[in-house]
Fold each of these.
Amino acid sequence: MTNAHDFTLDAELSETAAWEDTETDATDTDASDADTDDDLTEDTTEDWQSGYADEPDPEEEMTVGAMDLAERHQLRRVASLSTELEDISEVEYRQLRLERVVLVGVWTGGTVQDAENSMAELALLAETAGSEVLEAIYQRRQTPDPATYVGRGKVDGIREIVQATGADTVICDGELAPSQLRNLEDRLKVKVVDRTALILDIFAQHAKSREGQAQTELAQLNYMKQRLRGWGGNLSRQAGGRVAAGAGIGGRGPGETKIETDRRRINTKIAKLRRELKEMKGTRDTKRADRKRHEIPSVSIAGYTNAGKSSLLNRLTQAGVLVEDSLFATLDPTTRRTTTNDGRVYTMSDTVGFVRHLPHQLVEAFRSTLEEVADSDLILHVVDGSHPDPEGQLAAVREVFAEINATHVPELVVINKADAADPMVIARLRQREPHAVVVSAKTGEGIAEALAVIEGELPHPSVAFTALLPYERGDLVNRIHQHGEITSLEHTGEGTLVSGRAHESLAGELAAYAVS
Ligand SMILES: Nc1nc2c(ncn2[C@@H]2O[C@H](COP(=O)(O)OP(=O)(O)OP(=O)(O)O)[C@@H](O)[C@H]2O)c(=O)[nH]1
Ligand SMILES: [Mg+2]
């Protein structure tokens, strides 16, 4: 287990709550007085708004001597992460919705590798959303700063980077409080978004089905609703540049009214979306009930985003689902009917990928989709064996399983991308996850074995039977093939003598032909 997840939202949120209560107009600082020649590698105690003076900065608790050499650089560049601006024609360029971004992370625990993995993932997310990553930096701190996320002394350093690179957006690797976003925007003078907003944006770009779009919109509205004050303040500042004294966030009157109307509009929209989603859920529930009545076993493919879930579904069922080297390529679940080697029918579904700290709003909004995972008979938990931190991915996915009450469903770990993975890592994963199969959805390696394990784990029909079926009841024999299990089958003078297991309603029909 790594500590990659120690950078928890919980910690941030509880701090945030405390901070929100005492929030003052700390944002009206004049940025020009905050110039320090902080070289980004060492911390300086700096002059900051007097409002913050009695807030102990947790950064100060750390002494350089106590840290490993590797950890000494508190704010470091992730060298390999900038994407080159490719040689594209001006026309094409204008069509792209490119934002030029600087990524900023706070690294609170785990190894340097964990921190770099987290930043690499943020970069992939940013690129998936259509941004160009110019620079990625992170800072070592015990906890994110409640006011500015990174240490207050680092904000100026980031501003220099923003100016030098010409970035128009800063993306922070966490879920930030409205006040943190506002404070940062005030000092950095560019748009600041957090990881949650980024993921919501990707979902909004990718959702295709009506349900997927409604779910995403619901998640976005819930996110926005909590941040109305923050965004409102920021937007007016951004629009008008510098805000005249007294007319900023503190200027209650009209602003407050506007926020109230916005909140009401959002609430109305949320209620409408919830109603629509409920109707769509109704249709799906009917389908599911149908499947249940026929006791058709269902298998869900779940796992970290980009692990190869859709590729695996394609391999296992020839489904022809979109496969893409991109995060969150699949947002709309696909269910395929398929059969076991001996002809038994079952379904296999592809689902939306999970990610570390999947925004809570999304889990809530996608709950009805995710319920299908909780309701299935077997989960294929796909993990990318070639990823730098597959254990971290397994843990992150299991956190979501817990959140959607899916922990009771039997789980088969499918270690994918065996063709690209380090055999040592595969051995390590096998050791850790004894109930696992190793496959490559790309080459087909291990697929037959995986299918055999899957078939063996499907639930068995509940009723044992032995029946002598006259030859004109070939339809019943077919149905036993599709929905039951046959242990022996013999053609006799009077008909087909079959024994095996069937679900209740089929067993009821067979009862008329029962032999003991
Ligand atoms: N080398 C290798 N690449 C694979 C394998 N399986 C999938 N991939 C690649 O991994 C990338 C992601 O595959 P998908 O099947 O789209 O992954 P997914 O889990 O459905 O991803 P999302 O829907 O985005 O969450 C694609 O570029 C695939 O070609 C494999 O076994 N080996
Ligand atoms: Mg997919």
Amino acid sequence: MNILVLGGTGQLGQCLGKVASQRNITSITFADEIVGNILDIDVLEKLFIAEKPAFVINCAAYTAVDKAEDEVELSRKINRDGAENIAKLCVKYKATLLHISTDFIFEGNVPTLLNEESPAEPISVYGLTKLEGEKAITDVLDQYYIVRTAWLYSEFANNFMKTMIKLGTDRDSLGIIADQVGTPTYGVDLAGALLDIIASDKKAYGIYHYSNEGAVSWYDFAKAIFEIGNITVAVKPLKTSEYPTKATRPAFSVMDKTKIKTTFGIDVPYWRDSLKVAISAL
Ligand SMILES: NC(=O)C1=CN([C@@H]2O[C@H](COP(=O)(O)OP(=O)(O)OC[C@H]3O[C@@H](n4cnc5c(N)ncnc54)[C@H](OP(=O)(O)O)[C@@H]3O)[C@@H](O)[C@H]2O)C=CC1
Ligand SMILES: Cc1cn([C@H]2C[C@H](O)[C@@H](COP(=O)(O)OP(=O)(O)O[C@H]3O[C@@H](C)C(=O)[C@@H](O)[C@H]3O)O2)c(=O)[nH]c1=O
């Protein structure tokens, strides 16, 4: 059963590469933006024909949250139209799609756990276009898993953990937002969960939430990165209003993972345990 990974050179794509090789999965192909441009349906169709995937994992996305506020059309093209192109080809070639979405589809104005039925009310262009991507898939395809995740980090590509390690090493002090709460997700854990879903062959299609366990603010997360990484830097907790950004982010986006755990028997590590693993992998 061939697996095709789109956006294969991004952060999650590389995490999938790591886990696939740990598990000796060889029937997996990682396509970059050139051979697997999700905006070009003809290029994509050639790839489907060549690879004959039973499963397609879409890791390709526009993920620059602040920049998206100024690049609405490009963000929409990649996050919505790209997802729709993939879904149409999955229908045509009878492949199952695993698509990744985000906690940023939620408004996050109430401090309660978010489950798969919680109403989605995005407050940023990135969140809105990711939600549009979800809808484009569910409108045309039945065989899909949409896995929403949050605060993804790893030893690969760019992410909050690596930014903190760089800033914490270069600077004497930092201010980090302490009134936005969520759950970090180690990309290697998420990659394992995606491959578990494929291996289960349960056909329990639908939307699922996956992050690590626990809840922290960005400030707590940064402090843990410095502590575990042995980096000495003064860290000041900030209110969101004290760190202005182009995009508005949810104040609370902790997700309920009950559905993915009970459906697939997936074990979800505690965020701090996974952070230790990620830092030692750097
Ligand atoms: N990062 C995070 O904190 C979170 C991410 N997610 C979701 O997880 C998924 C994976 O994210 P992550 O790996 O971190 O993101 P990355 O930005 O690291 O990777 C996205 C990849 O998509 C590629 N890409 C962009 N445009 C196209 C295109 N037209 N065709 C093919 N590939 C394209 C990018 O290539 P290039 O870099 O060359 O443009 C990049 O390699 C995304 O769906 C994201 O929305 C969800 C929650 C949190
Ligand atoms: C660099 C920095 C960031 N921050 C804040 C800004 C923001 O609220 C928070 C995280 O900043 P970042 O820009 O690194 O992360 P951001 O790009 O907002 O992360 C999001 O990415 C998208 C793709 C998702 O899907 C989300 O789940 C989430 O992971 O930390 C500080 O307070 N101080 C700092 O020095």
